[in-house]
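Open question from group meeting: does this chain pack into something compact, or does most of it stay loose? Before anyone orders reagents, we agreed to write out a predicted structure and look at it together. Recording both the input and the output here so the notebook holds the full record.
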Amino acid sequence: MVKTVESTKNRVEVGSILESSFQSMLDNEFSNSKKIVMVDENTQEECWPYLLTIFEGLEDAEVIVLPSGEENKVMEVCFQVWEAFTNYGIQRGDLIINLGGGVITDMGGLIASLFKRGLRFINIPTSLLAMVDASVGGKTGINLGQYKNQLGVFAFPELTICDPIFLKTLSEKELISGTAEMYKHAIISSEEHWKTLKTLSVNNVSSDVIYNSIQIKAEVVDNDPTEKGLRKVLNLGHTIGHAIEGFFIEDHVYTHGQCVAWGIVVESKVSEQLGHLSKENFNEISDVIRDKFPPMTIAKENFDVLIALMKNDKKNNSSKINFSLPSKIGAVLIDQQVDEDTIRKALEFTFIEN
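Structure tokens returned:
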């Protein structure tokens, strides 16, 4: 059975793509449109043949293979795709289908939204991370050097389809990565979701758990689609997490989810140091993350680089670094300006003392 999260900005269907509205869209509103399917090397091999076998409306689709990996989420790749669109004669009424993880949905959405001032697109996320986060909420983006998602626009897909069948193509490492955003959703909004996730096996992620996470994010986005206020709660773990990810972006050492998870630990420690979060709640968050995610090593001499990366974070609006900090499991404070000394102490506690 397909469950739908629908609001003014988001339409997400969770369940089998065979039971989704995808076929109807191909047969009706996009029956005469050219289709471009954006994949990476992995989803071209693991996921595209499945769709091609099932949906006759994709037989004439052009397939564009993007290089996989966060380091390839750059403007140079976008230019190459736009040139291909021009060669294919793509027009405003045509359809882009983003079939892949967060890199594909982030970059594919940006590519679609800028070409001829906006093409319609559908996201079919194939990673857990993309299902519960990257493909939902209308954020598109590419990186600028070490700085994550510095270039982007808000652009919402016509439809996002989250079919757990694609999770079978993932390694355990990628499944664990995806759960980081789910833990974030729980901390910002739902103690019940948190309790469920604490007992979750990454090899048995159900449609219901995915649906619950998406519903939390979609509700936040619907109330603040362009991040003027409430949506900032979704930045929990990301100020530190993006800095860590940027620092290691060329080394392929840590996944996005792992960086976010440890970012949540550091930012929770910052919150405890500032008196916003109880020691009991901090210990619970820290213990769960340490139990569920692989360890991370960052030397103290690299803290200056992390701080510099944080200072260039797009969420800042003052000389201090801007955070969304948990006040308890189920609630977050936004627009918290934090000084460097407090951040360093939290980094040292997380990566050196423990």
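Observations to bring back to the group:
The domain at 3-169 is CATH 3.40.50.1970 (Rossmann fold).
The radius of gyration is 20 Å.
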